[in-house]
Structure formats: structure tokens, C-alpha cells
Amino acid sequence: MADEAVPFDDRGLAYGDGLFETVLVRDGHPLLWDAHLRRLARGAERLEIPLPDMHTLASLPGQAGAGLFVLKLLVTRGSGGRGYKSPEPPVPRLRWRCTPFTPQSAYWRDGVRVRLCRLRLGHQPLLAGIKHLNRLENVMARREWCDADVAEGVLCDQYDHLVEATSMNLVWQRHGALETPDLTACGVEGTLLATLRQRLPIHTREVGGEALMEADAAWVVNSVQGVWPLRQLDDAVGTCLRRWTMQAEQRYLQQHAHPLLGYPHDAFDEA
């Protein structure tokens, strides 16, 4: 079903008992589609929710039509069960919506200012990596600032290890190597990051914020917005900790990632 009303007893609404994907669709063609389906399948296996029919899923991007859209898929366990007890067998519920989309090309060109969040992500390896519906930690972290000049917030875990941004993944270049946080205990494994790791030597590191302070270049990335270079990192009260100039190092990841999304190879071009 498309964007229809969700019943009051839907378990996704009540408990966050489900999964979602946000897919960039260009002229009816979904970008990184196989990676999105793999993550959806991995999440469904973890939560023990039957996947929707693949023919149904495959037909959805074509509903977008000409132009650039974001397709959002929601899969919940459906209705039923008593309290936290799950219905057996579950009857999953699929909802979806296609929304016209315009990327923030100025962020590709000029880079972004980000800040460290106070909130710390808790560890739950069973849910790590997948895109489940219970994103309350990210919601609370995003409420920490209202400054329009701050594009993203950087999240650490309970041990002060870097994990992700509120809605994007982190990558940086340090001592000549590309690095990204370890996501085995918490965080979402983005489809753009997963695809780039198949193409580039991006090393997983369990490190704190000092890694960003030592980085020659750093980025936040996802499969809808593409790659935003960091130009400034602030602490949780808005004090600047580090600045980067927009030089060749800051453009490197865009050159590899943006062709996957149909975005300009050169960050100074328009979308």
C-alpha cells in the first residue's frame, strides 16, 4: 500500500517494531537499490519480520516518475499481539511515499559545520547496522541545536568512541588512510558507505573525537545527500574545535561517491 493511514495498533507506531529505507530515485531508477534491499533483508532477518514481496518492492521506484525523488519504505511487524508479545505469525505492513527532492549542492561546494552531540549512543549489537524504526536517540540528539549554520551532529557511544552523525555516516582521512567508525555495537551502516567500502580501502577504527582533530579531511555521507566535506567541527556548546579549508583532499570522496548517485563529480558544479 502507498501512503495510507496506519492503524492505532500497528506495532511500528506503538513500539518502533519495524524497518525503513530512504532511497534516491532518479527518473524512476533507484540508486544503490541492491544495497538498500540487502540492508532491508538483513534487518528483517534480525527482527524476524517476513519481507514484503520482492516484485512489489521492485515496482515502487517506478511510481516516482521523471525527476529526482526520495522513496521512503516502511515495513512494520503489523498489528496484533498483546503488549510487547509479538503476533504469531506476523502479518507485515508496508507503507511507502515518493517525495520530490533537491540536494543541498552548496554543502557539496562549501562544506558544512558540524557539532559534537552531548547524547551518547547505547550499545545493542543485535540492532547495530540495520535501519530499524526506533530512532529516538537520533531524534533527541538532533534536538540539541537549532543553529541553521550547523548541518549535522556527531554522535559518540557510551565510551566516547565516534559512531556516526545523526542521519549520516562519518569518514575521515588521517595519516594518509581513509577511516570510519566501528558500527558493530551501535549505529547505522549506510548504503553509500557500504558501497564505497567495496571500492576504496576504508578502514574501521574504534577511536574517539581525537581522530577528527587529527584528520586532514573529513566527511559526512549518505545515499540521499551524497558527500558533505567538513569545514568546521564545534563542541557541544558551539566552540570551534577544528577548521578545514576546502582543498583537493576534501573533494576526494565526492569524486568516488557522487557518480554512484548521479551527482556532479566536481563539487563546484550545480546539481
3D structure, described in words:
With 271 residues, the protein is an alpha+beta fold. The protein folds into two domains: 11-100, Aminotransferase class 4, branched-chain amino acid transferase, N-terminal domain (D-amino Acid Aminotransferase, Chain A, domain 1); 105-261, Alpha-Beta Barrel (D-amino Acid Aminotransferase, Chain A, domain 2), CATH 3.20.10. Helices cover 24% and strands 31% of the residues. The chain has eight helices and 13 strands. Strands 5, 6, 7, 8, 9, 10, 11, 12 and 13 form a nine-stranded mixed beta sheet that branches. A four-stranded antiparallel beta sheet has the order 2-1-3-4. It is globular. It starts with 10 loop residues before the first helix and ends in a 10-residue tail after the last helix. The relative contact order is 0.15.
The CATH superfamily of the largest domain appears as D-amino Acid Aminotransferase, subunit A, domain 2
Classified by CATH, the class of the largest domain is: Alpha Beta
Average per-residue pLDDT, rounded, comes to 95
Q: What is the CA-CA span between the terminal residues? A: 32 Å
**How many helices does DSSP assign?**
8
What percent of residues are in strands? 25-35%
Which fold name is given in CATH as the topology of the largest domain? Answer: D-amino Acid Aminotransferase, Chain A, domain 2
Overall form: globular
Report the sheet with the most strands, covering strand number, pairing sense and barrel closure. 9 strands, mixed
Radius of gyration: 19 Å
* Poorly predicted ranges: none
Total domain units: 2
- Number of DSSP strands? 13
Corresponding CATH architecture of the largest domain: Alpha-Beta Barrel
**SSE pattern, N- to C-terminal:** HEEHHEEHEHEEEEHEHEEEH
State the helical fraction. 10-25%
Structural class: alpha+beta
